[in-house]
Structures are given as C-alpha cells and as structure tokens.
Amino acid sequence: MSTRTVLKNATASFPNLFEPQGMQGTEPKYSITLLFDKAADLSALRACVDAAIEKKWPDVASRPKNIQMPVMDGDDKTDANGSQRPEFVGKKYCMAKAKVSHPPKVVMQDLQPCMDATEFYGGSIVNASVTAFGWTFGGKNGVSLGLNAVQKVSDGEKFGGSVAVEDEFSAM
C-alpha cells in the first residue's frame, strides 16, 4: 500500500511554497495547510496514513496507542490570541511540509512551473501530492505529511485583510 496520494481541490491556507519559513531556532521548511469541507472524502489519505502506521510500527501488538494524526478539526483551530479562525470553521485540515533540501514542485493548471508566487495565496484552490510518514519524537508518536508538489486548480476567495488602496485613501 502506498504512503503517497494526491489531495484534490483543497483550499490553501498559509502557503509557504517559494520561500521556506520557520520559527526562531527551527529549521525553515516549505509548507501549506490544506482545508477541506468536513464531508469531503479523504479515504485515500486515510489509506496512506494507515500504510505509514504499518510501515513505522509493523507489530500491531506493540504499536503506540496515542498516535497523533495529520487531519484535524478546523473548529478547534485558533489564532495566537485564542480566537477561532473563521476560514477553518466547518472544515477539516492538514499541514504538509518539505525540507529545504527537497523543495516542492509548484505548477499551474497546465503543469508549467509557477513563476509568480502571488498565484498561491490563502483561499486559492489546489491539488497537493503528499507522502505520509510515521515518527517518534520527544516521547510522542504521530503521522505527518511530506509535501511533494502543489498544482493550482483555480482562484478562490482570498483570506485575510487585504484592502484596495482606493477604498482607504484619496488622491492628493
């Protein structure tokens, strides 16, 4: 069973596809958060996660009991102030990351490389190739997603506080 799949028609959030980002003291990585309606069929992703669990912990009897899974409930997602993130409400989500040494391929609808980073923004619709892998770190166990490639499917409603300058200022 494969640990790789393509997640289709996800809404992108926090796409860091052209320049890796990282918290102070951590290795920078490329990343994207993928949002799905709660009713979306993610059975292919579930099969990849199951395959990653079997690969990392083949002995069912000794498999950890509390494995952190990559798909989370968007209704529980909050910002730094503890406020619920409106774009996550009613959604499920997962994050996929890639190391600087293995940047994701980023393409447009026609499979040509994307030359304009502004094409991928919070709210754009994407397909993403991901690989599930099991890990053990700091006494915890889980499955995370490696990011292989991202394809823009279409534009979507932008997240965030972008404003038109014409609405904010008058010409002088």
Number of contiguous helices: 2
Give the count of structural domains. Answer: 1
Largest sheet: 5 strands, mixed, barrel
The averaged pLDDT comes out at 93
Beta-strand content: 35-45%
CATH fold-level assignment = OB fold (Dihydrolipoamide Acetyltransferase, E2P)
- Pattern of helices and strands: EEHEEEEEEH
In the sheet with the most strands, the strands line up as 1-2-5-8-7
Which geometry do the CA atoms define? globular
CA distance, first residue to last residue: 64 Å
Oligomer: single chain
Structural class from helices and strands? mainly beta
Query: Which architecture would the CATH scheme give at its second level?
Result: Beta Barrel
CATH class equals Mainly Beta
Q: Radius of gyration over alpha carbons? A: 18 Å
CATH superfamily: Nucleic acid-binding proteins
Number of strands: 8
| Model regions low in confidence, pLDDT < 50 over at least 5 residues | none
Q: Helical percent range?
A: 10-25%
Description:
With 172 residues, this protein is mainly beta. It has one domain (4-168): Nucleic acid-binding proteins (OB fold (Dihydrolipoamide Acetyltransferase, E2P), Beta Barrel), CATH 2.40.50. The chain is 10% helix and 41% strand. It has helices spanning 43-56, 165-168; strands at 4-21, 29-37, 67-68, 72-73, 91-99, 105-107, 125-137, 140-154. Strands 1-2-5-8-7 form a five-stranded mixed β-barrel. A hairpin with a 7-residue loop joins strand 1 and strand 2 (29-37). It is globular, with a radius of gyration of 18 Å. The mean pLDDT is 93.
